Amino acid sequence: xxxxxxxxxxxxxxxxxxxxxxxxxxxxxxxxxxxxxxxxxxxxxxxxxxxxxxxxxxxxxxxxxxxxxxxxxxxxxxxxxxxxxxxxxxxxxxxxxxxxxxxxxxxxxxxxxxxxxxxxxxxxxxxxxxxxxxxxxxxxxxxxxxxxxxxxxxxxxxxxxxxxxxxxxxxxxxxxxxxxxxxxxxxxxxxxxxxxxxxxxxxxxxxxxxxxxxxxxxxxxxxxxxxxxxxxxxxxxxxxxxxxxxxxxxxxxxxxxxxxxxxxxxxxxxxxxxxxxxxxxxxxxxxxxxxxxxxxxxxxxxxxxxxxxxxxxxxxxxxxxxxxxxxxxxxxxxxxxxxxxxxxxxxxxxxxxxxxxxxxxxxxxxxxxxxxxxxxxxxxxxxxxxxxxxxxxxxxxxxxxxxxxxxxxxxxxxxxxxxxxxxxxxxxxxxxxxxxxxxxxxxxxxxxxxxxxxxxxxxxxxxxxxx
Length: 467
Hints:
Blueprint: E1 11-12, E2 15-17, E3 22-24, E4 41-47, E5 51-58, E6 68-69, E7 76-77, E8 81-82, E9 94-95, E10 98-101, E11 108-109, H1 111-119, E12 122-125, H2 128-133, E13 137-140, E14 143-146, H3 147-160, E15 171-178, H4 183-194, E16 202-207, H5 208-217, E17 227-233, E18 238-247, E19 253-263, H6 270-287, E20 290-296, H7 307-312, E21 317-320, H8 324-338, E22 346-349, E23 356-364, E24 367-374, E25 384-391, E26 396-403, E27 410-415, E28 427-437, E29 440-449, E30 460-466
Helix pairs in contact: 3-4, 5-8
């Protein structure tokens, strides 16, 4: 049975009280959750070339306002549970390693694979995510394996670690999260999932920044009174600062992330690392205020935070933990599958997402109204819709682009040169919208005519707009 983590895995950093010069720790509670599918698990999977981490939400219809049932303990928790590879300890990361012993068809995975590789006598395979993205063929004992197939094997074996608590038929949704999520990475993960032979109703992919957004939506409103800063200290002395910002003047509220990276000098002593990080954080916070700060990543391990902790805790709430992204992905699954009524609708604008609503004015029952075709926040590579319309008159129509981050509404006029002359409201057209690039909207129109009275002449048109 998977080991359940303690209720709090993101711990409040001590706050330095200047009057007494002593450290005080405050307990933090997350926002109330009211509902999710009965008897189903919603999984968040944080994946990199180094590790896999899995968090989940399970609810058996706890009383309103009480939170989720923790199926492992029977208790009620307001946060997702993260799988630990060691019972009673917070060892969340499953090493992203496969190992095939000589003359055996059974692959080892995770920490077992690492330990067997140290003993020798077989073939270890690592770097699965990037190799699958590049569609690499991996040679093991003279056999060639698709990296995507091995990635699917690794993920399937990771999910098997959750049994018997979580079985395949109990999973309602999975959200994969990764540091550098783009179209190629999403396609890599979706192909790997397809090879896992799981019947999961919803599978989604998102970036670490979007998982952070989902995590913050589920926290108390006080944390969101200003910007929210995420400090991800990963490999090679690089710290990724992501400030989550929002515009309350829009309805729904729009969130977006501003991200920058700072590289610390190598070979730093703990004291120098503390000073360098404090200076880098101050530079970011001087430009963008934040009401709370989250610290995550292996770089923050060890007891070296001193001056930086004092600076960050001045007027801010500060948290540290290693499972923020998998928890955020689990929350994303909840928000997609069964959004709690307590959480107002909002939009997250990823860097590769459409930043405007695209719609059209239509006449329905002799009343003019606005019909949305593409929603802001949709990833450009997922932005596609096809609908049929009847032209009221003329040989053109206009789409309406409405930026959700501010700015003027814009008309995108599509010209149908050469379309046959017909009476008003007797020309039916099929309109296909998609985005071939992050900032380009392609409009394809086909003349459908009007039944046998005005048959189509097969005309088609295409225009591309910058959005």
